[in-house]
């Protein structure tokens, strides 16, 4: 949509027409609200953001985690530890989460300095 807007503006064309040809204004308005919500400088409400995805993850999460080998840098160690715990549970919803569940990756979501310093690589596993 931004490409269409820029192209129309540079050619002196109908900017509104170019934008609405790509997406309806209601869709653009909803996308803008979502972008504002996800790019706020305040601490994210992680649990509220995860609730809609919980059911889907319960169904597909164990298979997804078992399908990849995850590797990462030093900064991503808390996330990799959490992945290891979830993989170890193997989708057994009756198992309680350990008391020392690593959550360091959740606290760092809004910290841009840390985000750029680490990485996580997911490679499909052949040993399934």
What's the arrangement of secondary structure elements?
Blueprint: H1 2-10, H2 15-22, H3 25-38, H4 46-66, E1 68-72, H5 77-89, H6 104-107, H7 112-117, E2 120-124
Antiparallel strand pairs: 1-2
Helix pairs in contact: 1-2
Describe this entry's structure for a reader.
- The protein is elongated and about 60 Å long.
- A two-stranded antiparallel sheet has the order 1-2.
- It contains 7 helices and 2 strands, in the order ααααβαααβ.
- It has 128 residues and is mostly helical.
- The protein folds into 2 domains: 37 residues, no CATH class; 76 residues, no CATH class.
- The protein starts with a helix and ends with a strand.
Order of helices and strands: HHHHEHHHE
**What structural class do you assign from the helix and strand content?**
mainly alpha
Radius of gyration: 20 Å
Q: Summarize the biggest pleated sheet.
A: 2 strands, antiparallel
Beta-strand level of the residues, as a percent range?
5-15%
Number of strands: 2
The largest sheet has its strands arranged as 1-2
Low-confidence stretches: 108-117
Mean pLDDT across every amino acid position: 77
Shape: elongated
Helix content: 55-70%
Provide a brief overview of the structure:
The chain is mainly α. Helix content is 59%, strand content 8%. Helix 1 runs antiparallel to helix 2.
